[in-house]
C-alpha cells in the first residue's frame, strides 16, 4: 500500500503550475512550428512567429507565456490501495498548491479567480479554489493532470444535445466559425461525446490533457469510429480558413481530441472546448517515494524563429497621431506603436459606465481624448521588469461599452485580441475610430515593448486597474479600419475560398 504524504502532493501541484506557466509541451511547440513552416498567409505566419518567439522567451526567462495564467483544473486518479498521510482533503491540498504557485516571488502568476460569480465578483487574490475532478481507480498510485485554462478559450466552450442521428461534424463546422478568434487559434479542440450533459463537458476538458498526435494517427490510419471522426474534423475545420488569430490561413487547429462514453438511447450530448495558444498542462504520478520531478525541456527543443519588421510597416507616434493619419491605415496593415496608451478591461469599463451614469467626471489622470486604450490585465512585474507579461484580452467583452467610450471620452482607437462584434464595428465606423489587434499568446514578447508603467486609476481592481503604459515599437495589426472593414471577416472568407481551390480536382 502506497502512502502519499500531504507535503509531496502539495509540492508537486505547486511545481507543476510553475512549470506549465513558462514551458509549453514539446508536442505543442513542434506542431506550432509545422504550422508556421507551411502557412501562406503573411499575417497568420507573422502571428505564429510571435507565439513561437514568445514561447521560447518564456522558457528562457521563466515567465508566463500568457498574462492570463488561467483557472486551475486538476484531474486526480487515486488508486484504491492508496493511503493518505494528510489532515486535508484532496481539494484543500490542491488549493494549497495553487496558492503557493501563484504567490511565487520569482514568478508570480496572475490571480484571476473571483468568488460570488453572481455577486460582487471579488478576486480571491490567490487563484483558489481550483476545479478538481477525482476518480477512484485500481492500483497503488495517484495520477495527476494539472492544467491552467485561460478565460479567452474557456469562454468559447460549447455544448449541445443533438438527436441520436444528427451529424456531429455538421454541428462542429457550424459552431467553430461562430466562436470567433478569442480562443487564440491555432490550438486544439476537445470533444466529449456521450454520457450526460455534465459528463460530456468533463470528457471534453480531459481530452485536452493528451499530447498532440494527429499526424501519427494520419500515418497509421483510423482504427475505430472515434479516430475516423478526429481525422475528418481535423481536415474540415482547417478548411474553414479561420487561421491563426482568426486572420485567415491554413491552420486553425493543431489537433482534434475526443473522449466518448455510453449514453441514453434518446440522447447525443456533445461538448466542445478549445485549448488556446497558451496550452498549459502537466502530468505526474505519486507512488509514495516523494514529490514529482518534472523533466525540464531543452531550449534547443524550440525552433530558431525570428520576427523582423518587413517593408511597408508603419511606425506610429501615439502622442502626436491625428485622426487624419488614422484614416489612412489599411485593414491588415502592420503598425509599430510608440508613445503613451491607457489600459482598461471589463471592470474598468463598468466603473466608467457607472461614473457617466451619475453625471460625474473620470478620475484625475484619466484622459482618453485622442488616446488609445489597450484591453489588458498584466502580470505583476518582478526584478528589473517594468511590467509582467501583458498580452491582450478578448475584445468582444468590451463591445457593449464601445459606443459609450468613443462618444463620451474622445478615444481614438482600441487595442485588443481577436475580432469585434457587429455592435462595436458599427460604433467604430460611426466615430471613425480604429481597432488594432495584438497577438494573443505572445504576452511576454509584448511586455518587452512596454518601457514604463504606472497605475492611474482604480488601483483596488488589481490587474483590472487602469494603467498608463509607455510603449516602443509595439507590433499590432489594423483589424477594423475607420470605414468599418474587419480583417476577421474578410481574411477567413478569402482563405476558405483559397483552400477550396487548393483541393485536387
Concise account of the structure shown:
The chain contains 15 helices and 17 strands. The chain has helices spanning 6-22, 26-38, 42-61, 90-102, 151-154, 168-178, 197-207, 214-220, 225-238, 323-326, 346-357, 399-408, 422-431, 443-447, 487-502; strands spanning 3-5, 71-79, 83-85, 131-137, 142-149, 158-162, 187-195, 253-263, 268-275, 281-286, 314-317, 334-343, 372-374, 413-416, 434-437, 450-457, 466-480. Helix 11 (346-357) links the parallel strand 12 and strand 13.
Overall number of strands? 17
**In percent, how helical is the residue content?**
25-40%
- State the strand order across the main sheet: 12-13-14-15-17
Largest β-sheet summary: 5 strands, mixed, barrel
Overall mean confidence score, pLDDT: 95
Protein architecture, described:
The structure is a single chain. It is built from 15 helices and 17 strands. It is an alpha/beta fold. 47% of the residues are buried. The model has no long low-confidence stretch (mean pLDDT 95).
Features:
single chain, alpha/beta, 15 helices, 33% helix, four-stranded mixed sheet, 505 residues, globular
Task: Give the SSE layout.
Blueprint: E1 3-5, H1 6-22, H2 26-38, H3 42-61, E2 71-79, E3 83-85, H4 90-102, E4 131-137, E5 142-149, H5 151-154, E6 158-162, H6 168-178, E7 187-195, H7 197-207, H8 214-220, H9 225-238, E8 253-263, E9 268-275, E10 281-286, E11 314-317, H10 323-326, E12 334-343, H11 346-357, E13 372-374, H12 399-408, E14 413-416, H13 422-431, E15 434-437, H14 443-447, E16 450-457, E17 466-480, H15 487-502
Parallel strand pairs: 1-3, 2-4, 7-8, 11-12, 12-13, 13-14, 14-15
Antiparallel strand pairs: 2-5, 5-10, 6-9, 7-9, 12-17, 15-17, 16-17
Helix pairs in contact: 1-4, 2-3, 6-9, 11-12, 12-13
Amino acid at each position: 500500500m502506497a502512502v502519499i504524504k500531504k507535503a509531496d502532493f502539495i509540492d508537486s501541484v505547486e511545481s507543476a503550475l510553475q512549470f506549465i506557466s513558462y514551458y509549453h509541451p514539446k508536442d505543442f511547440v513542434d506542431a506550432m512550428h509545422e504550422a508556421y513552416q507551411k502557412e501562406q498567409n503573411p499575417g497568420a505566419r507573422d502571428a505564429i512567429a510571435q507565439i513561437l518567439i514568445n514561447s521560447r522567451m518564456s522558457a528562457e526567462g521563466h515567465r508566463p507565456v500568457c498574462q492570463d495564467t488561467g483557472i486551475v483544473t486538476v484531474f486526480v486518479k487515486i488508486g484504491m490501495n492508496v493511503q493518505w498521510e494528510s489532515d486535508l482533503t484532496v481539494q484543500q491540498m490542491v488549493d494549497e498548491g495553487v496558492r503557493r504557485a501563484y504567490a511565487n516571488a520569482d514568478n508570480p502568476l496572475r490571480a484571476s479567480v473571483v468568488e460570488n460569480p453572481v455577486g460582487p465578483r471579488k478576486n480571491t487574490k490567490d487563484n483558489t479554489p481550483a476545479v478538481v475532478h477525482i476518480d477512484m481507480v485500481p492500483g497503488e498510485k495517484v495520477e495527476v493532470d494539472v492544467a491552467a485554462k485561460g478565460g479567452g478559450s474557456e469562454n468559447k466552450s460549447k455544448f449541445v444535445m443533438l438527436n441520436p442521428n444528427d451529424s456531429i461534424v455538421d454541428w462542429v463546422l457550424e459552431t467553430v466559425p461562430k466562436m470567433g478568434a478569442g480562443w487564440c487559434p491555432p490550438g486544439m479542440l476537445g470533444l466529449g461525446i456521450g454520457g450526460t450533459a455534465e459528463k460530456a463537458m468533463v470528457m471534453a476538458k480531459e481530452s485536452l490533457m493528451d499530447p498532440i498526435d494527429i499526424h501519427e494517427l494520419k500515418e497509421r490510419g483510423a482504427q475505430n469510429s472515434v479516430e475516423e471522426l478526429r481525422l475528418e474534423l481535423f481536415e474540415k475545420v482547417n478548411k474553414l480558413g479561420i487561421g491563426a488569430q482568426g486572420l485567415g490561413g491554413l491552420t486553425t487547429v493543431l489537433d482534434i481530441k475526443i473522449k466518448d462514453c455510453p449514453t441514453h438511447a434518446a440522447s447525443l450530448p456533445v461538448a466542445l472546448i478549445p485549448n488556446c495558444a497558451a496550452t498549459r498542462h502537466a502530468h505526474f504520478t505519486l507512488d509514495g517515494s516523494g514529490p514529482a520531478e518534472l523533466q525540464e525541456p531543452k531550449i534547443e527543443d524550440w525552433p530558431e524563429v525570428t520576427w523582423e519588421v518587413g517593408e511597408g510597416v508603419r511606425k506610429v507616434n501615439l502622442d502626436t497621431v491625428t485622426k487624419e493619419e488614422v484614416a489612412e491605415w489599411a485593414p491588415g496593415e502592420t503598425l509599430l506603436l510608440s508613445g503613451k496608451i491607457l489600459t482598461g478591461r471589463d471592470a474598468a469599463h463598468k466603473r466608467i459606465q457607472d461614473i457617466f451614469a451619475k453625471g460625474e467626471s473620470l478620475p484625475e489622470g484619466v484622459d482618453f481624448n485622442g488616446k488609445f486604450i489597450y484591453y489588458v490585465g498584466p502580470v505583476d512585474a518582478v526584478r528589473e521588469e517594468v511590467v509582467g507579461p501583458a498580452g491582450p484580452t478578448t475584445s468582444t467583452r468590451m463591445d457593449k461599452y464601445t459606443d459609450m467610450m468613443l462618444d463620451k471620452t474622445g478615444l481614438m482607437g482600441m487595442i485588443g485580441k481577436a475580432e469585434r462584434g457587429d455592435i462595436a464595428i458599427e460604433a467604430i465606423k460611426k466615430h471613425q475610430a480604429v481597432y488594432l489587434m495584438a497577438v494573443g499568446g505572445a504576452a511576454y514578447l509584448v511586455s518587452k515593448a512596454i518601457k514604463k508603467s504606472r497605475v492611474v486609476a482604480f488601483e483596488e481592481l488589481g490587474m483590472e486597474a487602469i494603467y498608463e503604459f509607455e510603449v516602443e515599437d509595439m507590433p499590432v495589426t489594423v483589424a477594423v479600419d475607420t470605414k468599418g472593414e474587419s480583417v476577421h471577416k474578410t481574411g477567413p472568407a478569402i482563405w476558405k475560398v483559397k483552400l477550396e481551390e487548393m483541393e485536387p480536382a
